[in-house]
Amino acid sequence: MEKPGKDKWRLLHDLREINRIIEDMGPLQPGMPSPTMLPRDWQLAVLDIKDCFFQIPLHPEDAPRFAFSVPTINREAPMKRYHCKVLPQGLKSCPFICQEYVASLLSLVRAKRKDAIILHYMDDLFVCAPNDSILQHMLDLVVKVLTSAGFQLQEDKVQRMPPWKYLGLRIAARTIVPQKLEIECNPKTLADLHSLCGSLNWVRPWLGLTNEDLDPLFNLLNGEKGLVSPRELTPEAKTAIEKVQKALSERQAHRCEPNIPFQFIVLGKLPHLHGLIFQWIEGQRDSLLIIEWVFLSH
């Protein structure tokens, strides 16, 4: 199967029978690590592990269980048999294994330099240090431990200069905003609306979009469940989209100040309560540092 927009192909391997008998390990990380916990003005670098899944070796006793056949053209010869030697894509709990394997390697680096930070999510790495010297040392350690384990880094995706782009966010020396987000202003079907609401749920912690702000949109998810079932925006839903667009252009979150305590405040009125994790720096022009907005489920 050809990858979209690339001159590369992906092997489609039917793993349904194997997946039925593999124990469900579940996600190791409950969510994406927040870059707001990276101290402001610290130096950063973003790394991307190339083909992370395909660099993790299978145990030799398990490898033959992932066998597959490749037919010849016009059946002119017997099919050739192969088996995977590395973690196959589509394997149940593959993300769990990938996270656990890479995390075990990075723990060696963290133990050597406790004055720096490594954020790890799947094949994305964020290395943060108080100065360039420590950052370079951390990068040398990370690259060494990963390449020694057989991993490769995507050189064209290494980022050393601001703004850094990481998991859909645009990170500056002190502030964090979502990368350019295309808002579907006129969803026509339930599928369109699901996509829109999913995007909004993702940016909410950084922009402070409350349940009350978004209720007119999320209420449209009720009704017919077919993905192509029609949807039409109400006047209230159109107003909600306008609020979203304004928040995207005006609001931001902040990288933390490591020497200032975190505070939490509950805002709003029942039943639309929400919270804010923040820091307050006395005597500065911009005293409020927004770390993360917290919301009840819809």
What would you note in describing this structure?
The structure is a single chain. With 298 residues, this protein is of the alpha+beta class. The chain has two domains: 31-55 and 94-173, Alpha-Beta Plaits (2-Layer Sandwich); 177-295, Reverse transcriptase/Diguanylate cyclase domain (Alpha-Beta Plaits, 2-Layer Sandwich). The chain is 28% helix and 20% strand. The chain is built from six helices and 13 strands. The strands form four sheets. Strands 4-5-1-6 form a four-stranded antiparallel beta sheet, covered by helices on one side. Strands 7-8-9-10 form a four-stranded antiparallel beta sheet. It has a three-stranded antiparallel beta sheet with strand order 11-12-13. A hairpin with a 7-residue loop joins strand 12 and strand 13 (288-295). Helix 2 (94-112) packs across helix 3. It is globular and about 75 Å long.
How would you name the oligomeric state of the polypeptide chains in this document? single chain
In CATH, the architecture of the largest domain is 2-Layer Sandwich
Rg from Cα:
23 Å
Q: What share of residues is helical?
A: 25-40%
Number of helices: 6
Total strands: 13
Compact overview of the structure:
This is ribonuclease H. This protein has 298 residues and is an alpha+beta fold.
What is the secondary structure topology, with strand pairs?
Blueprint: H1 16-21, E1 43-50, E2 67-70, E3 80-83, H2 94-112, E4 117-121, E5 124-129, H3 132-148, E6 152-153, E7 164-166, E8 169-171, E9 175-178, H4 190-207, H5 211-218, H6 235-250, E10 253-254, E11 263-267, E12 274-280, E13 288-295
Antiparallel strand pairs: 1-5, 1-6, 2-3, 4-5, 7-8, 8-9, 9-10, 11-12, 12-13
Helix pairs in contact: 2-3, 5-6
